[in-house]
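Hello again,

I reread your note about wanting to compare the complex against the isolated chains. To keep things tidy I'm splitting this into two emails, and this first one only covers the full assembly. Below are the input lines as submitted, including protein chains and any nucleic acid or small-molecule components. They are followed by the predicted structure of everything together. The single-chain runs will come separately.
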Amino acid sequence: MEQQSGWTVCVYCASSGSCDPVYHEAASLLGESLAAAGCTIVYGGSRNGSMGALANGALSKGGRVVGVLPRFLQQLEIEHASLSELHIVDDMRMRKHRMLTHSDAVVALPGGCGTFEELLEAISLKRLGLYLGPIIIVNIRDYYAPLLALLNAAVDEKFMAPKHRDMWTVVDRPDEVLPAMKAAPRWSESSLKFAVL
Ligand code: AMP
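Full-complex prediction:
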């Protein structure tokens, strides 16, 4: 039996139900593997798209799944009815804050601008030593290649330091997420010293 990890993992992913099903399958597999390892998943709380698939995958393995949904989105994104906990919050900023603050690691699956925004905020906070955990980017179908190219360009153009590349880890498949979380380079509050070039 796999060792129970006890990690609380914040997962950012798409609300879209119209994307290729391969993305929903990846979300479901990620939910299953994190739940099987004893992780608690914190996510956006919706039953739609990759978010719903993630939650269903985790719940199918008896996992603990915590949703954080802003009140004004309850009708649009539709809350998942079977979560371990659902927190209804006032706005998007509170949602993002609540999702990240109590998490030991962040995982980004493919998604739209909401997922980009959440992922880039986690990276920005980590650069400033305000978030210290692993950030794992799941690069299904090489979806994140343009964003990774842009992050590398930021380093090449000296908007960021080469050491900043240690802030995130890229994997190709959901089953690689847990090992990548465990192997992620350590990061400390002293990163503030090299935050600005
Ligand atoms: P998307 O990847 O665009 O489908 O968005 C994924 C999720 O992120 C959706 O639930 C959005 O409502 C959510 N989202 C978008 N912008 C923000 C934000 N600024 N703070 C928190 N959640 C957001």
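For quick reference: The beta strands are 8-12, 40-43, 64-70, 85-89, 105-108, 135-138, 169-171.

B.
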